[in-house]
Design brief:
The chain has 11 helices and 32 strands. By secondary structure, it is an alpha/beta fold. The strands form 8 sheets. An 8-stranded parallel beta sheet has the order 16-15-14-11-10-20-18-17.
Length: 530
């Protein structure tokens, strides 16, 4: 993908300049950086219905490696195939199409080393996430369902907010939420009249998807993953939640062909899938497999629930995306989801920081931050959003984007710094079913979070795993709300505790004093060579 600055990214998505971005990509035909975006633009038939009648794809090869990549029609007789090269060196391509003018075209290009900040796409690594170059991805996500459907000034403001915020993943919906009065711009399908449901299910509107992909690219330039929600139940106006199986499949293949080559894309099959009564679990299984088959890069795939949990153990699900606010009221509950599905877990919705008279939108700032800390100790990840309108009935971040008004974001930035200084690829629960409430790496690193408790001391008892005695540790007191770290003087030398074979402690310093405040944590780190 052509390199653009952070501020240029804001201008691109804010100004509906999707076609300009695509043009920049097309100009970079001779070379592209590893995990960037190489695009082939072809002239082809305009007559008939190119979306349904014309097929185009390309085969990209390097030595014995061959990657088949689907293309798409972008309007005005232009067809595009996008490719994200996984390795450096020379690549060759050959097109396949049922349109003779586009069939058998060939070319080559060079893939250079990735630029600074390009760590490659994110994938699941055990219970955690990492970029392709091995850099850990410490998920601190947020949700703004409809930000791409807002007026230009609002989109610019959202991106400027994300530039300053700690969030590295954004959940966002392809289809507009019909309840929002601020939606602007084209619909995903070509209009056939003025009524809400006057659209042609066999023809897409490229302008809609050009703005969507410009927004994805702008997030990518900010280092933010775009968790693209493919279906949702908040319609009742346009009928996008009632499409036939054939239209669903055509839509999915079109979106995947357009977006999969952007290295920051994730796929969320649906938000609150179980509210969509027009689809069965078998339908969701089928739709998952369509996305998996159409995406040559295997981007992360999940599905978000309301009251019914999807079986996230199925092989086409890469990680669990969960709505459950009570699960992160303590780490033990949150951890259970890992143990059941043996996959990475993101509690993408745990209720939101807000002032609404709704139980899902009334968390205080401390309660929002508490969820993240309990999730971290459990070896899971948590998502944020906020519902803080400036006037009754006004818009807010969750639905429209704009600016953040809550108290949690700076504290989540502080948490992110704790995570980034922690073990790789992430925190693991320690002695998880024995009320230890510890996360980290046995024998090396421990975190204990006290939440809304306010203890005056803590016994430095470490579970025996990977300890033999004589190990030396340092201890830090962390105020997660006031964002301070205070080292405890001296070191702690571990010895097996008398009368138990399960714990080690320092007999000279069995406890540490705590300040009797809420939202405290303790970090215990092994001293090198200790």
């Amino acid at each position: 993908m052509a390199r653009i600055s952070r501020r240029e990214a804001i201008a691109v998505a804010g100004g509906l300049a999707g076609s300009a971005l695509i043009g920049d990509v097309a100009k970079a035909a001779e070379s592209v950086e590893r995990w960037g975006l190489h695009e082939i633009a072809l002239e082809g038939p305009k007559e008939g219905n190119p979306f349904a009648d014309i097929e185009v794809s390309a085969r990209f090869t390097q030595g014995r490696t061959a990657i088949e990549t689907p293309g798409f029609y972008d309007g005005d007789g232009v067809y595009r195939v996008r490719f994200s090269p996984p390795d450096t060196g020379e690549w060759r391509w050959t097109t396949q199409s049922n349109a003779p003018l586009m069939n058998g075209r060939e070319g080559r290009f060079t893939v250079t080393a990735p630029s600074n900040g390009n760590h490659g796409p994110v994938s699941v690594v055990g219970y955690h996430f990492a970029h392709a170059d091995g850099t850990p991805f410490r998920q601190i996500g947020t949700t703004s369902y409809g930000w791409t459907h807002q007026p230009e000034a609002m989109r610019r403001l959202t991106l400027e907010t994300m530039r300053r915020a700690p969030f590295n993943k954004m959940r966002m919906a392809v289809f507009p939420n019909a309840s929002l009065k601020t939606n602007v711009g084209p619909l995903p399908f070509a209009r056939t009249g003025e009524a809400d449901r006057d659209w042609d299910a066999s023809r897409f509107d490229p302008a809609f998807f050009q703005r969507l992909e410009a927004s994805v690219a702008a997030l990518g330039a900010l280092g933010v993953q775009a968790d693209v929600i493919l279906f949702h139940p908040y319609d009742g106006k346009y009928g996008f939640d009632e499409m036939s199986a054939a239209v669903d499949e055509a839509y999915l293949r079109y979106v995947v062909a357009r977006l999969a080559a952007y290295r920051n894309v994730w796929w969320s099959l649906a938000n609150e899938f179980d509210i969509l009564k027009t689809k069965t679990e078998a339908d969701w299984d089928r739709l998952f497999q369509i996305v998996r088959e159409a995406d040559p890069y295997g981007r992360p795939r999940s599905i978000h629930n309301w009251r019914t949990l999807y079986d996230n153990g199925k092989p086409w699900v890469t990680h669990s995306s969960i709505q459950n606010g009570s699960a992160v009221l303590d780490d033990a509950r949150a951890e259970t989801y890992r143990s059941v599905w043996k996959k990475a877990v993101i509690f993408d919705e745990v209720c939101y920081e807000g002032s609404l008279n709704e139980r899902w939108g009334d968390l205080t700032g401390p309660e929002m931050v508490r969820a993240f800390w309990h999730g971290l100790i459990a070896g899971t990840y948590v998502g944020h959003s906020e519902c803080l309108p400036t006037e009754p009935g006004g818009g807010f971040w969750l639905g429209e984007g704009g600016e953040l008004r809550g108290e949690s974001a700076p504290r989540l930035a502080f948490l992110k710094s704790i995570m980034e200084a922690g073990p790789t690829p992430g925190i693991e629960p320690i002695d998880k079913w024995w009320e230890q409430h510890l996360g980290g790496v046995p024998g090396r690193y421990y975190l204990r979070y006290f939440g809304d408790e306010a203890p005056t001391e803590w016994a430095v008892d470490l579970p025996r795993d990977d300890l033999t005695g004589g190990e030396r540790f340092k201890v830090d007191l962390i105020d997660t709300w006031n964002m301070t770290i205070e080292p405890v003087p001296g070191e702690f030398v571990m010895r097996q505790k008398p009368n138990t074979r399960y714990f080690f402690s320092d007999p000279e310093r069995p406890t540490i004093a705590l300040p009797a405040r809420q939202w405290m944590a303790v970090r215990v780190t092994r001293v090198e060579n200790g």
